[in-house]
Amino acid sequence: MEGSKSLSTIQCSQKSSHVPLSNFASFQSHLSALNTQQRLRPVFHHDASYSAFERPMEDPAGVEEYQNYAWILASFAREHFSPFSEVYTRTRVYPSAIKWMICVYCFISVILFSAALYKSRISAIRAYGTKDPELSTMDTLSIESRLFKLSAMPLSPSMFEPFFIRGQSIDPQSVTACLWLNEDDLDDLIPWVAYWQGPVSLLVVTHTMSPSNEPSTLHQKILGVLKNMPWNVSFSCHLMHLGPAHGDYPNAFLNIARLFAPTASVLLFPGNLSLAPPPTLYSSLVSLTQSPTLVSITSGTSAAYPFSPFSPVFLPRDHPLWCTERFFDSPSRASDWNECLWQLWLESFGNVHILSEPNWQHLRDTHAISSSAISNIIQRRLSARFKSETCVLAMRRIETLGEDDGRTGASRFVVMSHVKDDAWVVHVGLAREGRWWQGQWQEKDVLEVAGRKSSPKILEAFADSIQSTIVRGDLCIENWDPLAESNKDMKLTLGPTANKPLHMHLQEMTTQDAAKFAANEFISIALQARSRQCRLHPSAYDAAPESHSTRHTPHRIKRPRHTSPSPSRASSPPPLKAPEDFKSPAPDDTTESPSPKPSQAEKRSRSSNSNLEAPLTRSKSSKLRSRTDDKDERKGKRKAKPLASEPTQAELLAREEILVLKHELAKARTMNMSQGSFGPGGSSSGLQSRSVAPAQPARRGASLANPNKKARRYKAVEFASDNED
């Protein structure tokens, strides 16, 4: 330690010769070896010796050494942020202050640089991206597929340049304005865009593509127009090069601009940009939920056709309504767009939503384009043919498929009524969607409508009136919204035009209950079809009997009196023609009820007068046959051809009895199926008991021993009285 102390003394003396050594013991220093890197660590003192040690710093040479910016910053930090009131030395303050300042500065710089780099990267991706965000299945199609599948114009790749200019930073929820212009009208785009706040999809059409440098000239012209546009406009431009011989197809051009629109909602502008939209139009369309909507350029809101010319239409880009492109020689934009508006009016069943925006700005005066008389004639004929074909197609689609587009027009419902033991149940189904609603009336509901003290006759008349209302189709559905997910307040109205219509609340059935109900209905239909050889509808030839070749008989069979009128009579074989000597009974006898067996006196009187009655009966039967033939001719029935051999009397009777029994059995089966366990009413009752047909009474003039044979005739002499002798 002594060597160390002496060395320290020498070094201090070399530094300054004015340092006293009297208080050397109080100064503690740790001196390392000469080849080490440890620093000399001074210890702060609060005694009087410290002031003596600090005096050499007042040397002018030392003051000039420490007068720099780092020392000034360190002094400022020491005075304001140091926890000690004493003055720091240079070896303590200078490195720590600079270190913290550099660290803070570097940390803030890294954050700002990272944010700027990330923002530039995102902007570069949006600017140089080749695909728009997928809004629908249309976005997955290539450009060639869009042109060949969705456009009627045969466009080759050399004629069409999609997305020559692609808009950037487009919000998918915004509304795109679809326009088309000729090359000469590009200057009208700049003032028009100043009134529109959303994206723009523009189709530029040129009819001069013969020179090789023509496309580059058009490109330079479009780029010059783009430089003068406002910076916040998202602008997409498509080019179409047509030859000089091609005309304009306004609806086709507008469809192509809509086809390549970057957003899900579009606004079709059919005009030539001579009218600018009002500033409030874009905000009204963004908040609009009903589509398609016609934007009226006048103050009227009438939904009657015809509409105002050049009225824009707001609709989704993938809406099934596309403007017709069948008019190849359109005289003007207005005539072609008028057909598109009529098509919109027809597709919406006359219920077109109207948005009135009358404050349109007139940018320049337009001059009417004169067209030839031949073009006008062709346009009128094509328009009439197009409207007739479209109307026929719409009516067939409504009648056969029941289409309602799910959004506009009239919805088609089916109503099924079932009567149970304790309630009247009504099921209402929506066509093409598989949704079912159920409503019912209990006994208290019926009495509330008909009256608490109603008699059975009044209730029966009330039920008959409801049945006639349903049969006439005098029904409607209230509180039905096709766009709503659930309709809780739906009502079935019976007789909406009556003074006091009846209402039944409907509740939507779950998917499981609706499927169960539909399955039960199909089972009931299938069981009823078993009696018709599993046919859905009965055949007109099911009840026709087969003809048999038998020997000819001159007798004509009278229809049995016990059989009741039934539909089978129309399908039974026609009556055979009787010979002239056939004695037909009077017409009143065919409708009489069965009479008791005649007595012997009656037989005697009838047999005695048979010769007198024969001509009268023969004349009456001929009159009846002539009347029957006249009725058959008036009804258009086909007469039966005369048979070579007619069946016998017994065969005809047996055949008619078989037909009657068949129809009675078919009625019993139908009643059993409609009222069985699978029936719509849910009743479990089986076949109802039916009365057996009474036995066939004895025919007049038939033998008692053998009813199939005629009774023998006895002479009047055999019944003479003995008193006459």
UniProtKB/TrEMBL annotation:
Region Disordered: start-end pairs: 540-652, 671-725
TM region(s), chain numbering: 100-118
Domain of life: Eukaryota
Keyword Transmembrane helix assigned: yes
Biased composition, class Basic and acidic residues, residue ranges: 626-635
Stretches with biased composition (Basic residues): 550-562
UniProt keyword Membrane present: yes
Keywords: Membrane, Transmembrane, Transmembrane helix
Protein name, entry field: Uncharacterized protein
